[in-house]
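> Could you send the cytochrome-b5 reductase prediction when you get a chance?

Sure thing. Input:
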Amino acid sequence: MASATRLFASARLARPSLVTRAPAQARGYASAASGGGANWPLLLSAAGAAGIGAYAYLQYDPATKKEISAKAHELEDKAKALAHQGEDKAKALVSKGEAKVKDVQAQTDATKEGSGTIGALISDSWTPFTLAKVEDYNHNTKIYHFSFGEDGADKAAGGHVASCLLVRSPDGEDKVVDAKGKPVIRPYTPISPPDQKGSIELMIKEYPTGKITPYMASMKLGQQLLFKGPIQKYKYEPNTFDKGLAIAGGSGITPMYQLISHSLSIPEDKTKWTLMFSNVTEKDILLRKEWDTLAKQHPDRLRVKYVLDKQPWGWKGETGFITPSMISKVFPRKADEKVQAFVCGPPPQVASLAGPKDGMKQGELQGALKELGYSSEEVFKF
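Output:
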């Protein structure tokens, strides 16, 4: 009976301590940063309650004291671990935010190089640009002019040559999605220079079976398209090779135009270029006026050879598929010359000239260029 009296007395002595601690723990939980649902302060409270509630019993049953005490310590350790996880998550969020700021700053610095302008795009965010003008180029190709708006009048697309932009339609009823309901995203290379302020121009060939090109062809002036980028494809450095060979097919001409026109605009660059541009018919040749103008302005640095599948009467250019013998004829290389070849066009053409790409990777060098003795370091596939 005396033992029972002491037991209840101990319990009464313990109760005020528990009541006193509870409000402080509640305030600590309410003011703590969220840790993804971790309820560690309540666990601490539970651990404290378990220890206090069992105190009297443990005093009078030493046989179980060790086991229950270990359980209480285990529960307390788990609570502390959850507390640390909450701190770690908070630190991770701060670190991620700091990394984001550094990334934006790096991109801003990159777009300022040489032009002194700030880029209108961020590589991991979709930015809406407004369709300001559409020009018909030929029977299936148009030039789309997209404005950066009043706030972007002094901004440029940015990026190094050569780079591309990603495009998708805005959210809404007309959003272009694939069979799985995901947005359809396509890469395009602007024909406007990266440092052009206020707008960009895209030359787009419409494919009836395509997803994005029919959508763009149906756009009205004032509508918006979402852009992300720029995405670096190949960083060009002047005078890193003596001669450049660019082989393009169809709409694959746009990266070549960005690359070569940029090179020719640099006075101290002495690199000489040869362009082999294949198309089905003469009316399919894109940017022909621009290429002919560049060739006349830089006769010592640029040679342009058009290749047609179906040549018209009196055609004096090359015809048929681009073969190793045709490449050797148009672009003979000397043993002591440092050369670099670039390929862009429909996948079957790229595969026949340099081997297929491996997703986003270059893939193994194969095809005509390998047959001619080019190394993988001397060939780049856009």
